[in-house]
Amino acid sequence: MKIATWNVNSLKVRLPHLLDWLAATQTDVVCLQELKCEDKSFPVAELEEAGYQAAFNGQKTYNGVAILSRKETCGEMTDVQQNIPGFADEQRRIIAATVKDVRVISAYFPNGQAVGSEKFEYKLRWLNALTDWLRDEIALHPRLVLAGDYNIAPEDRDVTPEWHDEIHVSVPERDAFKGLIGLGMTDAFRMFEQPAKLYSWWDYRMMAFRRNVGLRIDHLLVTPPLVELVRSCVIDKAPRKLERPSDHAPVIVELA
DNA sequence: ATGTCGATCGCTGATCGA
Asked: CA of A58 vs C1' of B6, distance in Å?
């Protein structure tokens, strides 16, 4: 079973890339972020045609998340949940669903803009709420994947070396990431030896992709019962090389 | 450091968020 996370930065614009990628990789479960589309505009029919069921939590202009599951291999998704229970939030950043016997969460963590800003404070509050909720969610669903754009680069090796104490790499953000690890989760990517300087996001500006100036901020965290099933975890840079790409590359974990 | 995108409002460009 292959589970991926991909911040598409507008589902409308990236739909052709997504459909090509689904056909090429046959990924079973895809967690999408930054749909930037309302639920009424979600391309249900196109994805159905490609063999995928979709659960989504969208809004106009900003945010928006979805989970796609390949019907042939996964059957029906169940127990769909939107947003963090008990955390009042206008922003659509979370969707969870059970696919076969795995609880899957697609999460778009707040960007935070700049350390110390109001948006940064919101990011930390959101991270607290997520962590509290996940503790319960893991107790209910021991086989769980937290997939998404975390907007946090956990370690210095996940970052172009010039970045220090800025947004995405600051100590409070990394402490929050460690808090998720503290729930017993494992970063699937770091279970394996990986090439150096492998990132999942590159700024559109300053030829960042060509210069490989980027961050590893898209992650798949798995709970202990899934750790032993993880066979690989890779970042697929191919879609980032296409015309009109998302600024993020998909990350894929393969479970036995 | 900000040179790029994408969406919106509402008009063919400015503004915002990332």
From this structure: 16
* Nearest by Cα to A143 from A252, A224, A73, A29: A224
Separation of alpha carbons A93 and A191, rounded Å: 27
Q: Is A62 helix (H, G, I), strand (E, B) or coil?
A: coil
A91 is near strand B: CB distance < 7 Å: no
The dihedrals phi and psi of A61, each to the nearest 5 degrees, come to: 70, -45
Question: pLDDT tens-digit profile of A79-101?
Answer: 999 999 999 999 999 999 999 99
**Residue A111 CA distance to nucleotide B17 C1' (Å):** 9
Consecutive H or E run containing A107: strand A102-108
Categorize the per-residue pLDDT at A192 as very low, low, confident or very high, splitting at 50, 70 and 90.
very high
A60 touches strand B (CB under 7 A): yes
